[in-house]
Specification:
0% strand, globular
């Protein structure tokens, strides 16, 4: 996997950080983006891949530019 092997993990940590900064639970974020909260948990743990559509939904729900989720 090379130098990007921890990308999912880093993305997940950043997502959790921003979510918490917005005072949202995983359940609340999941409801906003119309996904199961287990999926949000798996993303934050670096266990799930996401699509561009989900990236857009998450960024919109958190009121951030999508690129901010990649600023580790």
């Amino acid at each position: 996997m090379g130098r990007n092997k921890d990308l999912r993990e880093q993305f997940g940590k950043k997502l959790a950080y921003i979510r918490k900064r917005r005072n949202l639970s995983q359940i609340q974020l999941a409801e906003i983006v119309n996904k199961n909260f287990n999926y949000i948990s798996r993303i934050e743990c670096g266990k799930a891949n996401i699509t561009m559509k989900v990236l857009q939904l998450l960024a919109d729900a958190l009121d951030v530019d999508a690129k901010e989720l990649f600023e580790f």
